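Design request, tokens follow.
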């Protein structure tokens, strides 16, 4: 009988993972879904929406939708390039300069 709770727990875990994977395929998120995808609290997403720091729509005046692209754009603000990315840009620029000489 101890196996039943273990199986139920596993089923719940699988259900949760399937739900998460479906979220990454959606084009529009509710605030709750956006918080899950971004890995932040719901209250943080609510503050972003209330202060208009993230693009969103309210088609019926109450329910909020956030485009996946807008969420990604917000999350990538103030992007910091890795050293490898900077080295690649510098190397490409030097090659272009040498080819012009």
């Amino acid at each position: 009988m101890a196996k039943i709770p273990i199986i139920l727990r596993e089923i719940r875990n699988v259900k949760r993972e399937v739900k998460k994977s479906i979220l990454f395929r959606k084009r529009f998120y509710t605030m709750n879904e956006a918080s899950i995808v971004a890995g932040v609290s719901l209250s943080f997403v609510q503050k972003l929406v209330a202060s208009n720091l993230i693009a969103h729509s309210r088609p019926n005046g109450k329910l909020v939708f956030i485009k996946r692209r807008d969420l990604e754009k917000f999350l990538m603000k103030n992007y910091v390039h890795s050293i490898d990315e900077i080295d690649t840009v510098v190397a490409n620029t030097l090659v272009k300069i040498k080819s012009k000489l």
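Comment from the thread starter after seeing the answer: thanks! The chain is about 65% helix and 5% strand.
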